[in-house]
Amino acid sequence: MSREEYRESAFDLTFPRHTLVSLLVFVVCWELLSHLAPLLGIPPFAIPSFVKIAKSFATITPLDVVVTLARVIGALIVSFVLGVALAMAMYRSPSLEKYLHPMIRLLMAVPVVSWILFAVLWFPGVEFRIGFVLVIVCGPVFLIDSLDAMRNVPRELRNMMRSFRPTTMQFFLKLMVPGIVPSIFTSWKVNISLAIRVVTIAELVGAVTGIGHQLSVAQELFSVADVFAWTLVLVALLFLLEAAVARVETRLLRWRV
Q: 196 and 205 in contact (C-beta within 8 Å)?
């Protein structure tokens, strides 16, 4: 595949034929099941038709979508900066790594629900609670992936770079950062999916805005159509963010073609 073909395929936002067929089959099966639900002993509201789901889409509030998206993007940026900075410090200081690495593993072992409960007990502000939970969950992923990527930079390149007696900043900016870019993009893809799921749970507790709050309201009203509609919005946000990261990745790593 030539570079031009690779670039066109990377920026192509159309769905493959197999994806469209799979989605169409799912829609048809769901619609049939919604009509057959009473015959199967399932309450009609439990499996709403796509007509009802479409009506729920009409009630989607853009403000809640923007708020959730801003929380996710802001927390991911903060997690990325803190994770990479701490990874550099741990790479530079083996003693610091020995002390911090067990703590990072411990943080990653704590369930998300526990972090949410801790945030509710520790912090009064709703936005700080949500941001804390997102950063504490996503930050270690950036840190571990960046640190492992730094170790995978060939020793010959590191020794050659040190022979020029660079400063610490020059060593990382000229060698390490370019060397870990592919792993960083992998971390972003993983954390986007993780953040979308976590922010929804975090918004269920105490938040009065956001998609998670709207899902809580829909659950209290037993409105499955609203739950389905908001869930599709979350999936759409995930696809859009992943597409944006993929575009940046393609542009920065076009040298790999």
A: no
- pTM for this model (two decimals): 0.82
State the number of CA atoms in the 13 A half-sphere of 194 facing the CB: 22
For residue 102, count other CB atoms closer than 10 A to its CB: 10
DSSP letter for 15, please: P
Token pair 């509710």: residue: 120
Nearest to 215 by CA among 42, 65, 55, 33: 65
The CA-atom distances, in angstroms, between 239 and each of 17, 160, 219, 235, 236 are 17, 41, 25, 6, 5
pLDDT tens track of the chain, all 257 residues? 444 443 444 444 455 677 778 878 888 888 888 888 778 777 777 788 888 888 888 888 899 999 999 999 999 999 999 999 999 899 888 899 899 989 999 999 999 999 999 998 998 888 999 999 999 999 999 999 999 988 888 888 888 888 888 888 888 878 887 888 888 999 999 999 999 999 998 888 778 889 999 998 888 888 888 998 999 999 999 989 998 998 988 888 776 65
> Alpha-carbon distance 205 to 209, whole Å?
11
Report residue 171: phi and psi, to 5°.
-60, -45
Cα–Cα distance, 108 to 100 (Å, whole number): 12
What is the rounded CA–CA span in Å between residue 80 and residue 82?
Answer: 6
Long-range contacts of 160-169 (CB under 8 A, 24+ apart): 168/92
Residue 177 exposure: Cα atoms within 13 Å on the Cβ side: 12
| Cβ-contact 1, 244 below 8 angstroms | no
